Amino acid sequence: MAPETVQENPFGLEAFYRQLDTVGTGVLYLLVIMSLASWYVILTKLWDQRRLRKDYVEVHKGFWTAGNLRDGINKLSKDNAFKMVAEDGVRAAQHHEGRLTDQIPLHEWITVSLYRSVDSITSRMQNGLSLLATVGSTAPFVGLFGTVWGIYNALISISLAGQASLDKIAGPIGEALIMTALGLFVAVPAVMGYNWLLRRNKDISEKLKYFTADLHSYLVSGARVEGAAPTAAARPAAGAAAGAAVRK
């Protein structure tokens, strides 16, 4: 009995890659680069958001339970984003002097300093999202361009061969359509990741605003907005200094 011969599939992904010309190879590599870049942004931003969420939990556990703001700041880890906001607020409350700052009320001076820090953190949170939006909107068209180019080459090859049977048309055109599928494969995760990260950024931004509002109230009046006023022993030194400056 003669051994069975294994026939190579002429229409698989391997055959598709071998038949690509320079333009098709460039389109394929571009889609691969776009996919890798979008996944890199998604994973790194998820890591950053996870760290910010942990920072917020650390603030509730250690910062607001301290006797004063300085002790609360020292309880936070060195890379805690909320620590930077608190330090900027304390620094603004303690250095409200000079010809320019005399013209600005204390609470406005502290507000500007706090929200400058919040805007800096928010700006870092938004980094990379524009890349996801760009990949999500352009990847399908890049894949479509690869499909159009592949069909164009397939039709030229068929016309030169002088054969227009179904088996000669279906294979090349089907392989060309793979580019459209690859474009969608790149675009869909980018769009979903963009929307997901944007929603998580919004939640973290709300937490930053709540923390900033409480810190602002503490620095100006010595009490948080959402809770009862602390005892005299628990009031921060910076808040007392800020209150004294306001009374002047």
UniProtKB/TrEMBL annotation:
Stored InterPro entries: ExbB/TolQ_transport, MotA_ExbB_proton_chnl
GO CC terms in record: plasma membrane
UniProt topology in membrane: Multi-pass membrane protein
Residue ranges occupied by any MotA/TolQ/ExbB proton channel domain in the UniProt entry: 102-208
Transmembrane segments: 26-43, 131-156, 176-197
Cited Pfam families: MotA_ExbB (PF01618)
KW Acetylation (keyword) present: no
GO BP annotations listed: protein import
Keyword vocabulary terms for this entry: Cell inner membrane, Cell membrane, Membrane, Protein transport, Transmembrane, Transmembrane helix, Transport
Keyword Transmembrane attached: yes
Cellular compartments annotated: Cell inner membrane; Membrane
Subunit text: The accessory proteins ExbB and ExbD seem to form a complex with TonB.
Function text: Involved in the TonB-dependent energy-dependent transport of various receptor-bound substrates. Protects ExbD from proteolytic degradation and functionally stabilizes TonB.
UniProt record similarity statement: Belongs to the exbB/tolQ family.
Protein name: Biopolymer transport protein ExbB
